[in-house]
Amino acid sequence: MGIACSLYDQLEIMSSNRQAVRLVFEDKTKLFEGQIKTLTAKSGKEFAVSATDEWVDLDGLLAIEMIKPTD
Prior knowledge:
CATH class: Mainly Beta
Strand content: over 45%
Structural class: alpha+beta
Radius of gyration: 11 Å
InterPro entries: Rof-like_sf, Rof/RNase_P-like
Mean pLDDT: 91
CATH topology: SH3 type barrels
CATH architecture: Roll
Shape: globular
Largest sheet: 5 strands, antiparallel
Order of helices and strands: HEEEEE
Helix content: 10-25%
Number of helices: 1
Distance between the termini: 39 Å
Strand order of the largest sheet: 4-3-2-1-5
């Protein structure tokens, strides 16, 4: 299905800035929190690769929220 261009653009910016994010999906049981290292595609699907090398399937991505660092 792919994700909206505006969401992809936000992810690119946040990954280059090493910003911690929360990814919110249509499937409420699916959630990701952490840093995105890179974005990639494989077999026609888009993925975010986290700083810990977790591959997150971006299908159904609804929103991206910044996570503020704790002091």
